[in-house]
């Protein structure tokens, strides 16, 4: 679910670099499951950029990087079951545009 969202690009080798790849994810709110999964669900962007930061500092670090990332930080607050349903309907195939792939749902 963190790598499947219609706003997220995916890259082939001609366009990919570490930071682009790391930012091709979205933080999601799993409700009470955030704690069960040690907040890797709602701090997934941080996890991609700084995977060595301990989960018990992830919330604090996420708050610190949000202003730095600006529009490149992605968060989806859609309830998780609704997001799963939506993404199975919207992210059916990918369309390539000059080395960048985007999820689509219509030909």
UniProtKB/TrEMBL annotation:
Question: Which InterPro entries does this entry report, sorted A to Z?
Answer: Fatty_acid_desaturase
What's a Gene Ontology MF term here? oxidoreductase activity
- PANTHER family on file: OMEGA-6 FATTY ACID DESATURASE, CHLOROPLASTIC
Protein name, UniProt field: Fatty acid desaturase domain-containing protein
Which source organism?
A: Solanum commersonii
Lineage of the species this protein comes from: Eukaryota, Viridiplantae, Streptophyta, Embryophyta, Tracheophyta
């Amino acid at each position: 679910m963190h790598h499947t969202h219609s706003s997220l690009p995916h890259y082939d080798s001609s366009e990919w670099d570490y930071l682009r790849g790391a930012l091709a994810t979205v933080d999601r709110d799993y409700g009470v499951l955030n704690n069960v999964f040690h907040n890797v669900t709602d701090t997934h962007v941080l996890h991609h950029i700084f995977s060595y930061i301990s989960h018990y500092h992830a919330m604090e670090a996420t708050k610190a990087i949000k202003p730095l990332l600006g529009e490149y930080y992605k968060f989806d607050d859609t309830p998780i079951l609704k997001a799963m349903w939506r993404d199975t309907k919207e992210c059916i195939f990918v369309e390539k545009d000059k080395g960048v792939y985007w999820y689509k749902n219509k030909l």
